[in-house]
Amino acid sequence: MTDEPLEREEHHFELGTDGPKVIVAGVDGSDTSLRAAAYAWGLARRNGSRLIMVHVAPVAAISTLTPGGAAAMREAGEQILAELRREIERAAASMPVRYELVAEQGDPSAVLARTADEARADAVVVGASAQAGHRLIGSVAVRLVRTGRWPVTVVP
């Protein structure tokens, strides 16, 4: 052995290059999801990131049992999606961000996780749940955190 010190690699942070490059944000039209979308938009703008906004219409079996229930749910989902598109276009006009809007039906946490995995996301942003039942079954945010493949930011 020699008494010479081992060479150490130096690591330097570079401003403007260390943030997330792909961000997935869940939006369902609720106040907390809209705040999460705004937070994700600002994060994407500041970091030059690609933003994937995901709207998941949950599939509700009960709505198919009532006459017109499925059609009413589909129409409500389309209205929320149209409003989200208007808000996104308004934001894009004043603060340009590379974004896409994905709309699917299914379990919100499963769709967000799949989308984040497929896009190789560096971060996931969702709004906090305001529903009391989520204390028992877990919110979308809790299920995403438990998945543990990306940092998850929960916006109140």
UniProtKB/TrEMBL annotation:
<dbReference type="InterPro" id="IPR014729">
    <property type="entry name" value="Rossmann-like_a/b/a_fold"/>
</dbReference>
<comment type="similarity">
    <text>Belongs to the universal stress protein A family.</text>
</comment>
<protein>
    <submittedName>
        <fullName>Universal stress protein</fullName>
    </submittedName>
</protein>
<feature type="domain" description="UspA">
    <location>
        <begin position="21"/>
        <end position="156"/>
    </location>
</feature>
<dbReference type="InterPro" id="IPR006015">
    <property type="entry name" value="Universal_stress_UspA"/>
</dbReference>
<dbReference type="Pfam" id="PF00582">
    <property type="entry name" value="Usp"/>
</dbReference>
<dbReference type="InterPro" id="IPR006016">
    <property type="entry name" value="UspA"/>
</dbReference>
